[in-house]
Design a protein that fits this description.
Layout (H helix, E strand, L loop, with lengths): L7 H9 E3 L7 E4 L2 E4 L5 H9 L10 E4 L8 H4 L8 H17 L2 E3 L9 H8 L7 E4 L13 E4 L2 H10 L1 E4 L3 E8 L8 H12 L7 E6 L1 H4 L3 H9 L8 E3 L4 H7 L8 H12 L11 E6 L6 E3 L7 E3 L11 H10 L14 E4 L1 H4 L2 H11 L9 E4 L4 H9 L2 H8 L2 E2 L20 E4 L14 E4 L2 H10 L10
Parallel strand pairs: 3-4, 3-6, 4-5, 6-7, 9-10, 9-12, 10-11, 15-16, 15-18, 16-17, 18-19
Antiparallel strand pairs: 1-2, 2-8, 13-14
Helix pairs in contact: 2-6, 7-9, 14-16, 14-17
Bound molecules: iron/sulfur cluster.
Length: 468
């Protein structure tokens, strides 16, 4: 082992460390990009006001509206006001705070608006080697570009506003080595659900995961973002993937990516962002992707997950398991395929990108949503919406009987009024199946866009490979 060999994480951390940690104090880490939205920023702005502070680097701060914004076209672009009062207030507050503090904002009608973790990459704001923070757990998404990213709390949002730095204990490193080709009908979502099931919802605690191996190298950027997005669901502080030609190809020409000579210099820098041969990780796991099946959750955390064609594991003497299955209305040994469902949601920062919608459309084309089932499809951004409309995907969705909306977080967390009823089963491409996540009493089953689409067509939990 080379003493100087560094992991990808070590390289990015070291380049941003203003003050190293001590036994008593966390490190001070410089932040390149602070993404904000309407839900976790108001309190932080209030603190700035009370202390008579300014945002230290407005040029490194970008605001969008996504968590609580309506997805109905009439409320976004028409004359109907936002129906959820709390959402309307948050939207107004972010507008006034952004204006007062000089922060760039993509407001409700901006063509660049969308879910914070979708718009930053698609604009080229997210770049390899950056440190990125946002008051949202799924900031881990940006690690797909070789950025180091942390979801932070409202208090930390205030710290970053005031100082452009974050206090942080240095995480440990965890190599997730994945080899083999995914089979048809098995997607990046199935892979990350399998990984979470394998290492557990606390398996990555205190670590930054680095996804490595031939499987990862073969994934597109949309797929890599799906993987990194859910790192947090394995308890990790962040997830990262070393940038490569796929990354550079994705970023080239994006509105805010470097251009000309600056692009060439950036790519030269970015090529060095990889784990050196011989670098040591604190933990590791090896995954054979070639044997994986489509996956589905059966419980109330993403680690309670199983192959779609399997049966719910039988566990005795585990109160968490009993409570989860009680909430879901399931019991050990039950088969999931064929179970009737009520709602299907395709969207979120996990699976609301163009390739996700293309995957869903490949199943829905020429087919109809089963009677009695509600299929809600919400693009991750207005750009994704335009692309999907230009490619004819939106028409496929509408012809199938789906509800096609404006972008936002929507039913991922149901803050905007897009909710699942109590007791209803929702098959969802989002990232959390916690109790009440999609509405009070809602029962969420996490799957890939293909499985979601197949389930919408059948009206029952279905294997997408039957409809390929
Ligand atoms: S889609 Fe869900 S997980 Fe993603 S940013 Fe919105 S609320 Fe958070």
């Amino acid at each position: 082992m080379s003493v100087s060999a560094q992991t990808l994480f070590d390289k990015v951390w070291t380049a941003h460390e203003v003050v190293p940690e001590t036994a008593d104090t966390p490190a001070v880490l410089y932040i390149d990009l602070h993404l904000i939205h309407e839900v976790t920023s108001p309190q932080a702005f209030s603190v700035l006001k009370s202390l008579e502070l300014r945002v230290r680097r407005p040029d490194r701060t970008l605001a969008t509206m996504d968590h609580s914004t309506p997805t109905s076209t009439e409320q976004v672009f028409g004359k109907i006001p936002i129906k959820v009062d709390a959402a309307a207030k948050q939207v107004r507050q972010l507008e006034s705070n952004a204006a007062e503090f000089g922060v760039e904002l993509f407001d409700m009608r901006d063509a660049r608006r969308g879910i914070v973790h979708v718009i930053s990459p698609e604009l080229g704001c997210t770049q390899p080697g950056m440190t990125i923070v946002c008051g949202d757990s799924h900031t881990s998404t940006h690690g797909a570009f070789g950025a180091l990213d942390f979801g932070i709390g409202t208090t930390e949002v205030g710290h970053v506003f005031a100082t452009q730095c974050l206090l942080q204990r240095k995480p440990k490193t965890f190599a997730v080595n994945i080899e083999g080709e995914l089979r048809p009908g098995v997607t990046a979502k199935d892979l990350i659900l399998h990984i979470i099931g394998r290492i557990g919802v606390s398996g990555g605690t205190g670590h930054v995961l680095e996804y490595r191996g031939s499987t990862i190298r073969a994934l597109s950027m949309d797929e890599r973002m799906t993987i990194c997005n859910m790192s947090i669901e394995a308890g990790a502080r962040a997830g990262m993937i070393a940038p490569d030609e796929t990354t550079f190809e994705y970023l080239k020409g994006k509105p805010r990516a470097p251009r000309g000579a600056e692009w060439d210099a950036a790519v030269t820098r970015w090529r060095a962002l990889c784990t050196d041969p011989g670098a040591r990780f604190d933990a590791s796991v090896d995954i054979d992707a070639s044997t994986l099946e489509p996956m589905i959750t059966y419980g109330t955390n993403p680690g309670m997950v199983m192959p779609l064609g399997g049966a719910i594991p039988q566990v005795s003497g585990n109160a968490v398991y009993d409570k989860a299955l009680g909430y879901m209305g399931f019991h050990g040994g039950e088969v999931m395929l064929g179970k009737p469902i009520d709602v299907v949601f395709i969207g979120s920062c996990t699976n609301g990108r163009l390739e996700d919608l293309q995957a869903a459309a490949s199943i829905l084309k020429g087919r109809k949503v089963a009677p009695g089932v509600k299929l809600l499809i919400v693009p991750g951004s207005q750009q994704v919406k335009r692309d999907a409309e230009n490619l004819g995907l939106a028409q496929i969705f509408k012809d199938a009987g789906a509800d096609w909306r404006e972008s936002g977080c929507s039913m991922c967390l149901g803050m905007n009024g897009d909710t699942v009823g109590a007791g209803q089963y929702s098959v969802s491409t989002s990232n959390r199946n916690f109790e009440g996540r999609q509405g009070v009493g809602a029962r969420t089953l996490l799957v890939s866009p293909m499985t979601a689409a197949a389930t919408a067509v059948r009206g029952r939990i279905a294997d997408p490979r039957e409809l390929l």
